[in-house]
Amino acid sequence: MSAIIDDKVVAGAKSANIVKEDPIVALTEKVNALYFFRDHYFENHSIEEAIKKNNDLEKEMKDTLNKFDECKGYEIDGSRAKYYYLKGKALNVTERFIPQAEELLTKAVKLEPNLVEAWNELGECYWKNDDIQQAKNCFVGALRHGKNKVSLRNLSMVFRQEPIVNVEQRMQNIQKGVEHAKEAVSLDTTDGISWAILGNAYLSSFFTVAQNPAILRLCMSAYAQAEKDIVAGSNPDLFHNKAVALKYQEEYSLALKSFERAMLLDPLWETPRNKRDELLQYLKDVQNSVNNSGRVKPKRLYQMIRALDVKHLGPYKGGSFTSGQKTVKLDLILLKDLVLGLNPEKVIFGKVVCWIQDTDCVPFAFCLVDEEKTCIAVTVYNLAKGRGVTVGDSVAIPEPFVIHQKFSYLNNDFDFKSIRVETPVILVVNGRKLGREQEASAKLHTFKKTD
Prior knowledge:
Layout: H1 2-20, H2 23-39, H3 41-44, H4 53-70, H5 80-91, H6 99-111, H7 116-128, H8 132-144, H9 149-161, H10 167-187, H11 192-208, H12 213-227, H13 236-248, H14 252-265, H15 270-291, H16 298-306, E1 320-323, E2 326-329, E3 331-332, E4 341-342, E5 346-356, E6 364-369, E7 375-380, E8 394-398, E9 401-409, E10 412-421, E11 428-429, E12 432-433
Helix pairs in contact: 2-4, 2-5, 4-5, 5-6, 5-7, 6-7, 7-8, 7-9, 8-9, 9-10, 9-11, 10-11, 11-12, 11-13, 12-13, 13-14, 14-15
């Protein structure tokens, strides 16, 4: 009998606690649980269930909103700003823009202007609705009330997408984006989302400021840090953008796998699949062009090779060239004698037999054939739009850097060598060194789903 009475006492105590529970505390816990469900989805679901994630999240969101209905009326009883903020945040959990979320969050910041979290959520609302300027105002406003990683990393994204009036402003914005992302990381070095956004900032810098391999290395280092965080590591954006960076490092096998990971994490997002297929087609075209000397007919190929003349080595003809303050000795060698990696104090020479089209236009790629009919692919970075070489040109490349691609993917076998050229100004075309006007001053490129 006493046990039954004790049970009733305990049950009554629990009931009393529910009645006295602070609704704002309960709603905060419910909204936090909603975001945990989203960010840690793959801890409790297999990757095969990724296609269900959006629907599952919508259901969780509706369940969370029901909790707000239970607390209806509380918004006029002392904590209206927090109530509006929490409800707006709950509605903001999906990738789509929901006008009601904007309305609620606007009310929250008007009632409590120093509520940093509400400013950040409102900024994300505007971001989803493609209102970049209003989003920027929100994140800047949040920082006035307290430095925080969310505002900083979101401003990094805003600066990269903000409308600009000239190339100089674009480059300044990209640099601001890098600086804001760095500061966000410094506030919490364990936050993978901040690391991912820093990686994206470096990737934008690669396309806009200079296609410099050192910038790509910084980008890849940031992505590697991001992957250590289970939240960032469940985000398809990270793997899509990492794949883009890997492509320009010419780590093609890893790039294809990274695009595939993005596809698995979000089967409904078409961009990674399209980019994977485009890269695969590009690689097939390179392989086919190298195997078949650019598909040039034998007679035409013979004529092109016969037309090779050492005078077209131009400044490299004398067996040396000036690099900065020093003179570098050069020996002319055949393509077959190249070694992997850097070939110091060597120069190669051949005829352009074809271009290789790539939808992104970076790098500019062509095939080169030497006097022994050996064919190799050449990828040129930092080339100004509309510039390049044409079929039949004689091209000399000093100290070539050679990469060997050898891997299989989706029943396609790749086995070819390529020369990576970081700047076109080292090339000698038909006896003349290319001028600085051939070098890109800025390349703009949009590559991200939400950034």
